[in-house]
Amino acid sequence: MPADAPPPRPGRPVDPARRRAVLEAAGELLSEQPYDEVTIDRIAARAGVGKQLIYRVWGSKAEVVAQAVLQGTFSLGVLPVPETGDLRADLESWLTARAEAILGPGGRSVARALAAASAGGPDRRELFDEVLTHPAGAVVVARLERAVAAGEPVPPAPPEVVADLLTGYLSLATLGAAPLDPERLRAVVDAVLPAAR
């Protein structure tokens, strides 16, 4: 076991069906109500388990939510980048749609819960990246690669760097450290695509 890994929780192994029921209950509740209204008590009641089981296995609501997202019982959604032939407009449209999802019911709270769960060490950071950063970055990279193939003007930076800049800005905004207004989003796209104007 790595030195930074949390110690195993005491108790007998949890039945996989009960574990799945908890994650499904969390996903259902997150789909029905804002993150702040989802509680361990409500998750336990919906799953038909004791809340002690949830605390023993996951330790916190943020961890349950992170695992629900990772296991696919709740999805933050991966929005494809539009493809109109105008890379600048497509990336601005995508960034705006991502911002609306973040600002929507529970979006920012769920993303913050994932960020909080990721603070437990490098393996937890990989969870955050796997659930939020990598899927968003992959659609940006794919759109940039198609732009290159189609002969559209593209920035001189590698597609992965452009994707990192856009998803990094979204991560900051999710944590409340950057605004998500249309003017700022336009300025972010202008900053990463200066050579594609």
Descriptive report:
By secondary structure, the chain is mainly α. It contains 9 helices and no strands. Helix 1 packs across helix 4 and helix 4 packs across helix 6. The longest helix is centred in the last third of the chain and has 29 residues. The protein starts with 15 loop residues before the first helix and ends in a 5-residue tail after the last helix. 34% of the residues are buried.
Number of helical segments with 4 or more residues? 9
Q: Rounded to an integer, what's the Rg over CA atoms?
A: 19 Å
Sequence stretches where pLDDT stays below 50 over 5 or more residues = 1-8
In CATH's first tier, which class of the largest domain applies?
Answer: Mainly Alpha
| Number of extended strands | 0
Distance between the termini: 51 Å
Category by helix and strand content: mainly alpha
Percentage of residues in strands = under 5%
Shape: elongated
Average pLDDT metric: 83
CATH topology label of the largest domain: Tetracycline Repressor, domain 2
Helix percent band? 55-70%
Give the helices and strands as they follow along the chain: HHHHHHHHH
CATH-defined superfamily of the largest domain: Tetracycline Repressor, domain 2
**CATH-scheme architecture of the largest domain:** Orthogonal Bundle
Q: What count of structural domains? A: 2
**Major sheet, described briefly?**
none
Compact overview of the structure:
This protein is mostly helical and 197 residues long. 64% of the residues lie in helices and 0% in strands.
